[in-house]
Amino acid sequence: MSTTNVSTPIPAGLEVDAVLTALHNHDLMIKTLCPALISYEFESGDAKSTATYSVTDKKPIGQTTYKLTLTNVPDGVDSLVNAKPPVGVLTIAGKWRVKDGKLVEDVEIDGNFMMKKMAKGNVEKTHPEQHGKLLESAKA
After folding, report:
1. Residue 32 CB burial class (10 angstroms; 0-12, 13-18, ≥19)
2. pTM of the entire predicted model
3. What CATH number has the domain bearing residue 108?
4. Each residue of 55-101: pLDDT tens digit?
5. What is the span of the domain harbouring residue 27?
6. Which residue has the higher pLDDT, 36 or 138?
7. Pairwise CA distance, residues 116 & 129, whole Å
8. What are phi and psi of 79, to 5 degrees?
């Protein structure tokens, strides 16, 4: 299993409750996590606690559909991606937390060697920008 961490300071004046509200907004989370989003559908659960969605996204290698489960917790949200790309199974588990004046995301990635390496690079490259977009949305 491969792990990585992304941490972004919460801008001065932005209330923790506003950040938590943004994290608990599944529509906003999906649109933030999937910048090349084509579509998504609610599959099961409850959007106020734990819900699973079927997400179709555009990737460099083409269009892909995967399961995304979002679980609201008191200090943030857990995200779980279960994907089955042509080269194997990929699982990306994220724990998004508000702590010590920061939005902190701990990510565990599981899959074959190539998938883990590619996914980790993608997380480290794109998630700081996703944090920024999410914090910007929390201000609105």
Report:
1. buried
2. 0.90
3. 3.30.530.20
4. 998 876 678 889 999 999 999 999 999 988 777 788 999 999 999 99
5. 2-139
6. 138
7. 20
8. -120, 140
